[in-house]
Design goal:
The protein is α+β, with helices and mostly antiparallel strands. It is built from 2 helices and 4 strands.
Length: 86
């Protein structure tokens, strides 16, 4: 069973890997955005151009931090990552 994972922890992993946040700035700039979907699931989006390469880089950083990452692209929505912690 997956253990608890917080959006804050996922954001810390991405920031530690030198990926900027799009929401924790005075002025908007491209970067990642995280959302807590359940106690064990966090979703990650890239706000800005070139979503796929950025999402791939985020996935690599999160996997290196021990997270399980699943790319998602539901019909009619932007691509995102589903992140859990084993």
């Amino acid at each position: 069973m997956a253990s608890r994972l917080t959006a804050a922890l996922v954001g810390q992993h991405l920031t530690a890997a030198d990926h900027p946040s799009s929401v924790h700035r005075r002025k908007w700039a491209p970067g990642y955005r995280v959302q807590q979907d359940s106690p064990r699931t966090v979703r990650v989006w890239h706000d800005g151009p070139d979503e796929h390469p950025h999402l791939a880089a985020y996935a690599d950083a999160l996997r290196a931090a021990g997270c399980t990452v699943t790319p998602e692209h539901p019909v009619g929505t932007r691509p995102r990552l589903r992140v859990t912690h084993p």
